C-alpha cells in the first residue's frame, strides 16, 4: 500500500493508554484518535503525544478502513515530532529470518519466516514515512 501525507488542523482529539500483559509483565502504549481537517486519523506511540486540538500537523501513514494510521508526524505548531520505532523490529525481523531459513524444511520455520517478513515490511514502511516527512 502507498503511504499518504495529510496536513491540516487537529480536531476531536481523544487520547488513551492501552496496557497489555499480565503477572507483572505489562506494556503500555499511548493511543490517540483525532481528525485532520475532518479526516479520521489514529496514532499509537510508546511516548505521550504532544498534540492538542487546533494544532497544525503533517502526518504520514496508510489509510486503513477509512482512517489514516500514522507512522510519522510533525506538529507544525509546536515543532514536536514522532516517528515509528524501527531498530528493534529490524533486529527481531532479521533474527526471525535467520532462524526461520534453516528451519524452513520443518513446519516451525515457515511461521517464523512469515512473521519476520511482516516485521521487516513494517520497518520498511517506517523508514519510508520518516523520509517522506523529512522531505515535506
Describe the structure in your own words.
The protein has helices at 87-100, 109-135; strands at residues 4-22, 25-36, 39-45, 56-64, 67-75, 81-83. 21% of the residues are buried. Helix 1 (87-100) runs antiparallel to helix 2 (109-135). Strands 1-2-3-5-4 form a 5-stranded mixed β-barrel. The mean pLDDT is 88. The chain folds into 2 domains: 1-83; 84-136. The protein has 136 residues and is α+β, with helices and mostly antiparallel strands. It is built from 2 helices and 6 strands, in the order ββββββαα. It is 30% helix and 43% strand.
Task: Report a brief summary of the structure.
The protein has helices at 87-100, 109-135, and strands at residues 4-22, 25-36, 39-45, 56-64, 67-75, 81-83. By secondary structure, the protein is of the alpha+beta class.
What would you report as the Rg, rounded to the nearest angstrom? 17 Å
Domain count, please report it.
Answer: 2
Biggest sheet character:
5 strands, mixed, barrel
- Beta-strand share of residues: 35-45%
Cα distance spanning the termini: 20 Å
Q: Report the helical percentage.
A: 25-40%
Order of helices and strands: EEEEEEHH
Low-pLDDT runs: none
Strand tally is: 6
The total count of helices amounts to 2
Strand order of the largest sheet: 1-2-3-5-4
The computed structural class is alpha+beta
Oligomer state equals single chain
* Average residue pLDDT: 88
Instruction: Give the overall form.
Output: globular
Amino acid at each position: 500500500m502507498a503511504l499518504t501525507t495529510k496536513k491540516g488542523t487537529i480536531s476531536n482529539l481523544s487520547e488513551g493508554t492501552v496496557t497489555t500483559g499480565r503477572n507483572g509483565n505489562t506494556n503500555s502504549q499511548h493511543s490517540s484518535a483525532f481528525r485532520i481537517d475532518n479526516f479520521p486519523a489514529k496514532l499509537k506511540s510508546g511516548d505521550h503525544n504532544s498534540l492538542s486540538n487546533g494544532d497544525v500537523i503533517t502526518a504520514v501513514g496508510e489509510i486503513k478502513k477509512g482512517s489514516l494510521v500514522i507512522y510519522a508526524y510533525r506538529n507544525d505548531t509546536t515543532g514536536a515530532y514522532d516517528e515509528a520505532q524501527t531498530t528493534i523490529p529490524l533486529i527481531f525481523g532479521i533474527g526471525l529470518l535467520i532462524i526461520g531459513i534453516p528451519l524452513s524444511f520443518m513446519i516451525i520455520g515457515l511461521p517464523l519466516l512469515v512473521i519476520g517478513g511482516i516485521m521487516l515490511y513494517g520497518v520498511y514502511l517506517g523508514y519510508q514515512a520518516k523520509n517522506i516527512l523529512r522531505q515535506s
